[in-house]
Amino acid sequence: MKRLSALREEVLNVKLAELLSRSGILSVPESIIRTGNKRRLPDVLIANYWGVRVILEGRTNDRANIKATLESDCLKRIEEGLASLVIGVLYPVELKTTPWEALEQAFLSTIFSIKVFSEVEQGDWADSNLEGLSALLRRAYESLVREDVVNAAVEELQESIEIATRDLAMSPGTAERLREILIIPKGEESEQDV
After folding, report:
1. Which residues fall within 8 angstroms of residue 178, CB to CB, at 6 or more apart?
2. Which candidate, 43, 58, 60, places its Cα nearest to that of 94?
């Protein structure tokens, strides 16, 4: 009897990305994202889903601590600012030994264990099929938008700008430095003074 070789995790990730692409979700398998001098390799990047970057991290459920490791990696993606939403997916071990020609059908009938992470919250682990995973991504996006993360970020940025402006205005050297930067000669009257 011919022994089946195990499929690498990257193969499963690529197949998942392909199937999610068919369901209308733009995905780029094994995309490399650069942050500074570091290269980060998310398992599946779903680029700009309605303006929100989503990363899907996939692992084969073949080790005792795999959920903890996957959760840690998903949280790192959020903390590093690589994505606003990260979805952790645990593949059943059986997928690794599925023949390539049967892999798509196996994906369509498989139940995955999934968890969603966002800038505002973490979900719970849930079991779902591929169709449910697509729906979960849509719900996670809607939840993120409802949480109004963008408005909160804009308010935080605006507050920081106001604080910096106040600090600059109170600094005795600010007027002179701005005059130099803007090339305004000393002693020149403004139009309002005339």
Report:
1. 184
2. 60
**Strand (E) positions, the chain?**
28-29, 33-35, 38-40, 44-49, 52-60, 85-91, 112-118, 126-128
Contact 113, 84 (CB under 8 A): no
Closest CA to 49 of 71, 75, 70, 23: 23
Sheet with 126-128, edge to edge strand ranges: 28-29, 44-49, 52-60, 85-91, 112-118, 126-128
Same domain, 83 and 120: yes
What is the span of the domain harbouring residue 164?
Answer: 148-182
pLDDT in tens, 40-73: 555 666 666 777 788 888 999 888 899 999 999 9
The candidate with the shortest Cα–Cα distance to 104, out of 7, 182, 4, 38, is 7
- What is the per-residue pLDDT across 152-179, written as a single tens digit (0 to 9) for each? 777 888 888 999 888 888 888 887 887 8
For residues 157 and 64, state if they share a domain. Answer: no
